[in-house]
Design brief:
The chain is an alpha+beta fold. It has 13 helices and 9 strands. It has a single domain, classed as DD-peptidase/beta-lactamase superfamily (Beta-lactamase), CATH 3.40.710. The strands form 2 sheets. The protein has a 6-stranded mixed sheet, sandwiched between helices. It has a 3-stranded antiparallel sheet with strand order 4-6-5. This is Serine hydrolase.
Length: about 425
């Protein structure tokens, strides 16, 4: 039987509304009901196998790579995808952080909406998050919301596919001495990290995860989940190894977690300007008082929400979220271990048919894609000289992969035009 995760409680929603993060949402929007904008792919489905070419006007790309490649196909069974948990068991979005609040780019959100709303319908879901890397502007869209003004706090995680490899890399660099201590030859860890990030090598990802657990896959996944929890990636959860069949659990993340991860990489890599780093440090210095305020509010509400406490605990169990009923404060990081190496590996990405395909070829990008038979994802840093930004796009329950890829490229192009205008 597939596991399901409890819905967020009333106290969680109230606190998230009181301490909103991301794009300056209103308290009213934080508790709005989900509805569908509709995102339909009319084009014929395209086979994702590494032996077949993708059909996309944005530019074809190959799924072949070291190990099993980007799409999670078992070696020797190219046309047969790994069986993974269906999207209806994704963990519910828990209380998000509320510290450094970006400023909403309303015009950009409307442009993203215009592209997405015409392409997605039915059960297909599309989500986009954009944030300036040296500034504070951001834009967010999710097709499950009736309007772009809805907060990311209520959106919920989506199937990560190979985007989970970003967080594996983060955890490895945080435990680099443990992982390097298990090398078969000098430099093996660096080679595995490059293969995992630049070529989306699934075998490399599994090897690194196992070594995080010193040979135990389950422990290794928990190390990744603990990493995500500590660093505020509250929508992200590693529930299975790459290529592994698991009907009860899957790998999850969100566009906001991916963009937040990439911004932490940027701020810690030496690429960020001094003002951006200063702003991030300022947010860290103010986070403690905001956290205390959230805790005080939580204590006040404890008695009247006692009946909801078990549901809140269930909701946070799988998604790495904070303690039930609390609204955590998020502060960007400027000292992330391995940030420069992660960024350099992503710059060497071999799959550039999604977000990078919507950007002029002379603009440098660093991206990580992810896909399953019914999932198309991409997250990228765009090195626009005057206005660098990160963008994450996730689409799940896809019925036509070529059309989904084209939609991601169109969104990327719209964001680039806005940022460079």
């Amino acid at each position: 039987m597939k596991k399901r995760y409890g819905r967020r409680t009333a106290v969680a929603a109230v606190l998230a509304a009181a301490l909103l993060s991301g794009c300056g949402r209103t308290a009213e929007s934080a508790v709005a009901e989900n509805s569908s904008d509709g995102l339909a792919f009319s084009q014929e489905a395209v086979t994702e196998s590494g032996a077949k070419a993708r059909s996309s006007s944005a530019g074809a790309m190959s799924d072949s790579g070291r190990g099993s490649g980007e799409t999670e196909k078992a070696s020797g069974t190219e046309g047969e995808s790994v069986v993974s948990a269906s999207s209806d068991i994704s963990p519910v979005a828990e209380n998000r952080s509320a510290g450094s609040q970006p400023q909403e780019l309303v015009d950009l959100e409307e442009q993203i909406r215009a592209v997405m709303a015409g392409e997605v319908t039915g059960d297909t879901r599309g989500s986009v998050y954009v944030e300036e890397l040296n500034g504070t502007g951001c834009a967010w869209y999710d097709s499950s919301s009736a309007q772009t003004g809805k907060t990311p706090e209520t959106a919920g995680p989506m199937q990560a596919a190979s985007l989970i490899k970003l967080y594996i890399a983060g955890a490895v660099w945080e435990k680099i001495s443990v992982v390097r201590g298990q090398e078969n030859e000098e430099g093996e860890t660096n080679s595995l990290l490059l293969a995992m990030l630049a070529e989306s090598d699934n075998t490399a990802a599994n090897t690194l995860t196992s070594r995080l657990g010193q040979g135990n896959d389950t422990v290794g996944r928990q190390v990744v989940n603990d990493y995500c929890k500590r660093h505020g990636y509250t929508d992200t959860h590693m529930g299975r190894m790459l290529l592994e069949s698991n009907a009860a659990d899957d790998n999850y993340t969100s566009v906001r977690d991916c963009s937040r991860f990439l911004k932490n990489v940027w701020l810690s890599s030496g690429e960020a300007d001094a003002e951006a780093v200063k702003n991030a440090l300022g947010a860290q210095n103010t986070s403690a008082s905001q956290t205390n305020a959230a805790g005080a509010q939580n204590a006040t509400d404890t008695q009247e929400n006692a009946a909801d406490s078990q549901n809140a605990a269930d909701s946070g169990e799988k998604n790495g979220g904070g303690e039930a009923g609390t609204a955590e404060v998020y502060a960007y990081e400027t000292d992330m271990p391995g940030a420069a190496q992660i960024l350099q590996a992503l710059e060497q990405q071999v799959r550039k048919g999604k977000i990078p395909a919507g950007i002029p070829s002379d603009i440098k990008t660093a991206n990580k894609t992810g896909e399953l038979d019914d999932v198309q994802n991409d997250a990228a840093v765009v090195f626009l000289s005057d206005r660098p930004y990160c963008i994450s796009v996730m689409i799940q329950n896809v019925t036509a992969s070529g059309a989904a890829i084209q939609t991601i490229t169109q969104v990327s192009a719209a964001v680039y035009r806005y940022m460079s205008g």
